[in-house]
């Protein structure tokens, strides 16, 4: 692997790992005989390390972990006097009314608010509640594919809430993702593309264009390599065009007008600018 220096070197006070799936390899802290509940140290926390996720010590996924994370999260937040911070961050994720209900000390109101959340909302509320209860200035968050199990709209809110959290506690995050929606929220200077060369050696590249606000299709093609070697909508359009003989005939197969990328591809085929094997 290539090596590089980070200057100035950051002082990392705590490490928080965040994952929603069973395939991450983050270590899980050993379960204590008695859970520590002081200064933000709570469920699955040891000293300067915390695991936030759904994987059990047996390596399986258990949805009950979400409720457990939520029920254990509020006490360290209150002890560290960060209830207002958590409420503000949950307002970014959800809405102010739900954020207030989720951070109240009234168990009945909080339980009712939790029941009204979708599975994805409940998950991110639990994750951020645990982060706020444990994080200190100069912490490092390691996040594995946050798009897993989340609605695209909720994913953008997660990035906004994450940015707010990092600013609040002057901390850092490293995120592994395959989501163009997430890439669209991140400036190119903070993006690195991991791949392998023809000798199967890992390589890391910086972007040569601006990812922030870029078209999702362009990000999928230029960063994630969606169209090559995988098959995307252009292959379907090429086959339909070959079968029906004109862009107009292909468009007539769909109940609604095709979007601009699909129309551009079709009419490029019709104009002879591409043979259907690649991009116009």
Average pLDDT level: 84
Beta-sheet strand percentage? 5-15%
Principal-axis shape equals: globular
Distance from N terminus to C terminus (CA atoms, Å) equals: 36 Å
Helix-strand makeup class: alpha/beta
Number of helices: 11
As a whole number of angstroms, the C-alpha radius of gyration is 23 Å
Main β sheet profile: 5 strands, mixed
* Helical percentage: 40-55%
> Could you give the order of the helices and strands?
EEEHHHHHEHEHEEHHHH
- Flag low-confidence runs: 274-280
Strands across the major sheet, in which order? Answer: 2-3-1-4-5
Number of strands: 7
Overall description:
Helix 6 links the parallel strand 4 and strand 5. With 280 residues, this protein is of the alpha/beta class. A 5-stranded mixed β-sheet has the order 2-3-1-4-5. A two-stranded antiparallel ribbon has the order 6-7. 41% of the residues lie in helices and 11% in strands. Helix 2 crosses helix 3 and helix 9 packs across helix 11. The C terminus is likely disordered. It is built from 11 helices and 7 strands.
């Amino acid at each position: 692997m290539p090596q590089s220096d980070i200057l100035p070197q950051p002082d990392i006070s705590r490490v928080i790992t965040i994952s929603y799936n069973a395939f991450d390899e983050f270590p899980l802290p050993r379960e204590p005989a008695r859970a520590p509940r002081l200064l933000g140290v709570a469920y699955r926390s040891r000293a300067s390390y915390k695991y936030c996720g759904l994987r059990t010590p047996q390596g399986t996924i258990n949805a009950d972990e979400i409720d457990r994370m939520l029920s254990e999260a509020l006490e360290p937040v209150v002890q560290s006097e960060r209830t207002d911070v958590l409420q503000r961050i949950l307002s970014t994720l959800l809405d102010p009314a739900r954020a207030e209900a989720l951070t109240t000390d009234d168990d009945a109101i909080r339980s009712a608010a939790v029941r009204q959340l979708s599975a994805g909302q409940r998950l991110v509320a639990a994750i951020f509640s645990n982060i706020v209860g444990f994080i200190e200035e100069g912490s490092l968050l390691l996040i594995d594919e946050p798009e897993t199990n989340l609605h695209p709209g909720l994913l953008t809110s997660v990035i906004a809430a994450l940015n707010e959290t990092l600013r609040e506690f002057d901390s850092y995050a490293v995120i592994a993702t395959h989501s163009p929606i997430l890439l669209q929220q991140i400036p190119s200077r903070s993006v690195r593309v991991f791949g392998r060369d023809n000798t199967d050696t890992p390589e890391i590249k910086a972007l040569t264009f601006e990812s922030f606000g870029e078209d999702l299709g362009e990000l999928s093609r230029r960063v994630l390599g969606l169209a090559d070697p995988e098959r995307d909508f252009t292959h379907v359009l090429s086959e339909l065009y070959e079968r029906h003989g004109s862009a107009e005939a292909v468009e007539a197969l769909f109940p609604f007008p095709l979007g601009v990328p699909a129309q551009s591809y079709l009419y490029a085929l019709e104009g002879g600018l591409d043979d259907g094997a690649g991009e116009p």
